[in-house]
Every structure is written in C-alpha cells, then in structure tokens.
C-alpha cells in the first residue's frame, strides 16, 4: 500500500518541480537584468533622448547605444550619398536653368561633404575617439545646412531637394544626440 502512494504522488510532484524550476529561472533572469544592464539594452529609452525618437526607433533593435549610434550614422551616410546623387542628376536634367544648376551644385558638394564627415564619424565611433566623433557629426550638421542656405539666397527658387535635406538633417541630428550620450 505504501508503494502505491508513492507512485500516485509522482505525477503531482513532477509538475510542482517544473514550476519551481521555471520560477527559479524567471527569478534568475530578473537578477541578470539588474546585474548586467548591457545584456538587455533598451533602444526605445535611448531613442527618447534623440530629437526624432520615431526615426531613431526605426533603427532598433540594437545591442547598445554605440551600435544604435553606428546604425544612425550609417543610415545618415547613405541618405547623404543619395542626396548628392539626386542633386547631380537634377543638375544634368534637360531644361534645368543655370541658376538652379549652380545652386544644386552647392547642394551636391554639401551632401558629399556631409557623407565624408559621417564616414569619419563612423571611424571615430569604432576607434572610441569621442571628441573627434562629436566634431565630425557637428561638421556634418553644419555642412548639410549649406544646401538650404544656397536656396534661401535666391527668393522664389524652390529647392527640389528640400525634403531629402530635411530627412538628412533629422538623421544627422539623431546621430549627434545619440553620440552625445556615449561616455568619453
């Protein structure tokens, strides 16, 4: 009779043991989160520090602020190269007036310079050269303004690259915001 009692309770003990094991695993995971902040990086909370959080969140998930910053710089670099190519294409389009061509030339050169500064920024980030990173991101931000300024010099001349310049501005701004949160 004692033997039947032990066999009958085995099915009851097994689920209870599994629940205890599962509970311990969940508790260990919670402790791990508290002990090792880097193991569960929250890109959403870091993106709240960016000027354009939704744009930043589109780059998530990332493993760290550094990788999120790198992704932001990479996207901005691609956008700057795209803007330079579009400006060059518009310059060569048949019927483009001389004033528009010269203004788009300023934009093409500005966007190319932005791409160069962003590429240097990516290298600075990899090399952990924080001061240089911030200098090159700030330069990219200043350089991209050259295109808008060129069109402002000619009232009535409408920029065909205003939207891409605005988007680039947001990407560079987010890169700068994220980089500023990195430790020196």
TrEMBL record:
<protein>
    <submittedName>
        <fullName>(wild Malaysian banana) hypothetical protein</fullName>
    </submittedName>
</protein>
<dbReference type="InterPro" id="IPR006501">
    <property type="entry name" value="Pectinesterase_inhib_dom"/>
</dbReference>
<dbReference type="InterPro" id="IPR035513">
    <property type="entry name" value="Invertase/methylesterase_inhib"/>
</dbReference>
<keyword id="KW-1015">Disulfide bond</keyword>
<feature type="domain" description="Pectinesterase inhibitor">
    <location>
        <begin position="36"/>
        <end position="178"/>
    </location>
</feature>
<dbReference type="GO" id="GO:0004857">
    <property type="term" value="F:enzyme inhibitor activity"/>
</dbReference>
<keyword id="KW-0732">Signal</keyword>
<comment type="similarity">
    <text>Belongs to the PMEI family.</text>
</comment>
<dbReference type="Pfam" id="PF04043">
    <property type="entry name" value="PMEI"/>
</dbReference>
<feature type="signal peptide">
    <location>
        <begin position="1"/>
        <end position="29"/>
    </location>
</feature>
């Amino acid at each position: 009779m004692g033997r039947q009692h032990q066999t009958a309770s085995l099915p009851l003990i097994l689920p209870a043991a599994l629940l205890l094991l599962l509970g311990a695993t969940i508790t260990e995971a919670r402790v791990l989160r508290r002990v090792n902040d880097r193991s569960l990086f929250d890109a959403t909370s870091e993106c709240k520090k960016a000027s354009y959080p939704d744009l930043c969140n589109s780059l998530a998930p990332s493993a760290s602020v550094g990788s999120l910053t790198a992704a932001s710089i990479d996207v901005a670099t691609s956008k700057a190269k795209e803007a330079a190519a579009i400006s060059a294409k518009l310059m060569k389009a048949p019927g483009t007036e001389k004033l528009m061509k010269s203004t788009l030339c300023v934009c093409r050169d500005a966007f190319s310079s932005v791409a160069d500064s962003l590429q240097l920024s990516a290298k600075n980030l990899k090399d952990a050269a924080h001061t240089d990173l911030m200098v090159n991101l700030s330069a990219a931000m200043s350089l991209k303004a050259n295109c808008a300024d060129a069109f402002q010099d000619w009232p009535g001349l409408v920029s065909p690259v205003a939207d891409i310049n605005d988007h680039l501005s947001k990407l560079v701004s987010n890169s700068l915001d994220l980089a500023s949160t990195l430790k020196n």
